[in-house]
Amino acid sequence: MARRKLSSDMNVVPYIDVMLVLLVIFMVTAPLMTQGIEVDLPDVKAQSMSKEDEDRILQVDSKGGYHVSWSEDVKVVRTDDEVVSLTQKLLSEKPEQMILVEGDKKTPYEFVATAMGLLSDAGAKKIGFVTQEPPEEKTRR
To answer: Is 0.90 topped by the overall pTM?
Structure first.
């Protein structure tokens, strides 16, 4: 009777199976883990833009109203369709025009995101945000 030689090799196949199962679990659950939280947007230090670009601002108020700086009257609250048509008119003259979105800290992000969507629907390729420079106390660490 022939004796079998003892093998001291570790069988790693079960570990590879467990690793692949965990990988699949993480791949399936990772997209589900996105959650929204309320944030108080910070003040940002950034270089100033030229005056020509600064005067194209879409202001979003805390109630979701839009004020277009390149229209005749900035104080008039514009509808979604008016914002799109005014933006298309502006972009027909200057296709690469930067348009800035401005909202205060109390404006829900939903309204800012909707404004960005309207600008995108109108064909805007360059969209930015208006921020304020932080006070000197906040910048020191």
So the answer is: no
